[in-house]
Amino acid sequence: MPAMVRNGPGHEENTETDRSVQLYSPAMARKLTEEKRLTILEAAAEVFSKKDFHEVLTDEIAAEAGVGKGTIYRYFRSKNDLYFATLVRGFDQLEKAFPVPAPPHCAPRVRLEQIAADVLRLFWNRRPYYMLLQRDEKLLQNRDRELKQKRAGLERMVQEAIESAIASGDFRRIDARMAANLFLGMVRSALLYHRDSETAPAYAAQ
Fold it and tell me: How far apart are the first and last CA of the chain?
């Protein structure tokens, strides 16, 4: 029988914790909340990548995520906020994949191979996400600058690897900035046009 403590005349408190309550914790609640947020972001990337921003309805993202429209606005104040968060998450994933600066004694050619392989691995089955990151949007106003900086970070990383390869004699003298954009264009094409039967590691090895 549960232990009872009197807090005053006519008031008793159950001091025995219910076992079902013990299974719940704030940490678990945060995990579930983060899972739902990521589900919404993945759905947003899918929908935003197929249409211009102004053509996308929040209802479409909610349907893609399998949640109610009201749930979207519990996590993001507006469609603009959701769009921005979707882009930032993609760039953050790229930044985490590439150690900066490059590991010691890492040859420039190997560095480029690693960048290509990691981008393919991250986005092989999530093509819309990468396509979205390459889109140049003006609608985010002051936030657009932050996104351009993140996009430029990836381009700069590739450019520096190419410049190192030129300096070491591995590559002939070329315009490193143009070469970096061509390199990322080839990675983008690989993501867009690969066969369903191909895998990211196999494609990167080519």
Answer: 70
